Amino acid sequence: MVPTTQLFEDHIPLLIPWLGEEEINAVAKVIRSGWISQGPKVIEFENAMAQYVGTKYAVATNACTSALHLALRLSGVGQGDKVICPSFTCMATANAIHHTGALPVFAEINPRTYNLDPEAVAEVITSQTKAILVVHQIGLPADIDSFKVLAKKHDLILIEDSATSLGATYKGQRVGSLGAPTGFSFHPRKMITTGEGGMITTDDAKLAEQARILRATGASISDLARHQAKGVLIQEYADVGYNYRMTDIQAAIGLVQLSKLETMLEQRATQAQRYDVILAQIDEIEVPYVPPYATHAYSSYLIRLKPNCSIKRNELLQSMAEKGISCRIGIQPLHWEPFYRNLYGEMHLPITEDIAQTTMFLPIYPGLSEEKQNQIIYILKKLLKRN
Ligand SMILES: Cc1ncc(COP(=O)(O)O)c(C=O)c1O
C-alpha cells in the first residue's frame, strides 16, 4: 500500500514500512474484541514466530532492547561482568548489556561481513568476560559456529542480537534457532514491523517462562490468565520485573507482517541483486559481501566507497539528498559516542572506524519500484561521474 501522508511524497525515502489493509483490519478486530493489551494475539504471534524461526519458545516484548536485556539477565549476566560485542552496532545492543549491570567490551569486525570477528573476540577475552553478544548485522548472519567454539572453550554465555535479521539463514537454518537465546526487533527499519516491538526466541523452557514473568512486572500470573479465571487467581511477585509487554494491537500487526515475510524477503533480494549487478561494475564501490554459509535478509543495503572514490561519503549523502534520495551514513561506532569516550577514553578499532567512515545505506524496502530504484542508481552513477 502506498502511504497516504505527505511524508513520502517529495523524495525517495530510505524505507517505507510495508503495511496495508490487512494490518488495518487486524488492528480494528483487536480493538473491537475489547482486549488491547498483552493477551491472546500476543500468544498467537509468539507461536507463529517460534514456528517460523524453528524454536520451542518465543516471548514477545516491547522492543529488542528489552528482549536482549531479559536474555542476558536470565542467562546469568549481571553486575561487574563484561560482555563482548561489536562497536559497529546500534547503541541498543550495548544498552541491553548496561541494563544488567555489566559493561560492554568492544571487539573488531570482519572487514567484509561487518560482523564480529571471532579472532578479535578471542583477543579481548579475560577472566571478567561473562558473555559474547553476537550481532547478526543489517540482515547478514555472523559466523555463529566460531563463536560457539569460543564460548565453549572459555565457558561463556552466548546471546544473539538478530534485531535486523529475521528470515536470514546460516548454514540453511534460520537465525533465532542457531542455539543461543536471540533477540528480534519489530521497529519499522527491521524485516517486519509492529511500530515498536521485540521477541526472544529460545529452546530453553526455564528462560522463556522467567522472561514471561519479568516482562510483566514480575507477576506470577498474566492479566489474561486472571481474566480467564474470572479474577479469582492472585498473582505473586518473586522478583523485580519490568513493563516490557507487547500489546495485542502490535501482535495483530505482527501476525500479518509475518505472513508477508517471505514475499518481503524476495523483494529485498531482487532489489539487492539489481543494485549488486550494476554497482559492482563501478570500480569505486564495494557491494555487500555474502559468505557461502549465509543468506542475507537485506534489512539494509550498505555500500562502501573505496579509497579511489572521487567524492567523500558525506558529500555524496548530501548530494543524493538534494536530488531527492534519502540515504544514511552506515553504523556509527559506539566507542566514538560521548558516553563511551567519557567511560573508556580514546579507543581505536581501525577496521570499524574505516568502515564507519566509508559506508552508506541506499534505500531498500518492499514496494520500492524498479523505476525508483533505477532513478537511485542513475543519480548515484551521475554523482560518481559514471554517466
Ligand atoms: C543491532 C540492533 N540491536 C538492537 C536494536 C534495538 O532494537 P529496538 O529498537 O527494538 O529496541 C537495534 C535497533 O535498531 C539494532 O539495530
Automatic annotation (TrEMBL):
<dbReference type="InterPro" id="IPR015422">
    <property type="entry name" value="PyrdxlP-dep_Trfase_small"/>
</dbReference>
<protein>
    <submittedName>
        <fullName>DegT/DnrJ/EryC1/StrS aminotransferase</fullName>
    </submittedName>
</protein>
<feature type="modified residue" description="N6-(pyridoxal phosphate)lysine">
    <location>
        <position position="190"/>
    </location>
</feature>
<keyword id="KW-0663">Pyridoxal phosphate</keyword>
<dbReference type="GO" id="GO:0000271">
    <property type="term" value="P:polysaccharide biosynthetic process"/>
</dbReference>
<dbReference type="Pfam" id="PF01041">
    <property type="entry name" value="DegT_DnrJ_EryC1"/>
</dbReference>
<dbReference type="InterPro" id="IPR000653">
    <property type="entry name" value="DegT/StrS_aminotransferase"/>
</dbReference>
<feature type="active site" description="Proton acceptor">
    <location>
        <position position="190"/>
    </location>
</feature>
<dbReference type="InterPro" id="IPR015421">
    <property type="entry name" value="PyrdxlP-dep_Trfase_major"/>
</dbReference>
<comment type="similarity">
    <text>Belongs to the DegT/DnrJ/EryC1 family.</text>
</comment>
<keyword id="KW-0032">Aminotransferase</keyword>
<dbReference type="GO" id="GO:0008483">
    <property type="term" value="F:transaminase activity"/>
</dbReference>
<keyword id="KW-0808">Transferase</keyword>
<dbReference type="InterPro" id="IPR015424">
    <property type="entry name" value="PyrdxlP-dep_Trfase"/>
</dbReference>
<dbReference type="GO" id="GO:0030170">
    <property type="term" value="F:pyridoxal phosphate binding"/>
</dbReference>
